[in-house]
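testing teh design pipeline on a random one, pls ignore if ur not involved
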């Protein structure tokens, strides 16, 4: 489209009447939005708390492998074998 056509169509669009919007209307809308955001934040806090409590109630998993990340198991190391003789 040509820029002139876009501008001419923009000129034909009616401008909304903003005279009805005053400070009280904006304050009411801000209060409603603040209440909605508090409710959403409260729901998120309750959900996070619930997930944390449920996660904390689970029994810890028992490790079946050795805690040594590299090398042989601790029972096969020479220092441990010398201490048991």
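output:
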């Amino acid at each position: 489209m040509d820029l002139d056509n876009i501008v001419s169509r923009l000129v034909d669009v009616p401008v909304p009447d903003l005279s009805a919007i005053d400070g009280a209307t904006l304050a009411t809308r801000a209060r409603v939005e603040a209440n909605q955001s508090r409710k959403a934040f409260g729901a998120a806090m309750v959900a996070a708390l619930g997930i944390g409590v449920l996660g904390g109630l689970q029994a810890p998993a028992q490790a079946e492998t050795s805690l040594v990340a590299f090398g042989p198991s601790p029972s096969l190391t020479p220092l441990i074998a010398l201490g048991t003789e």
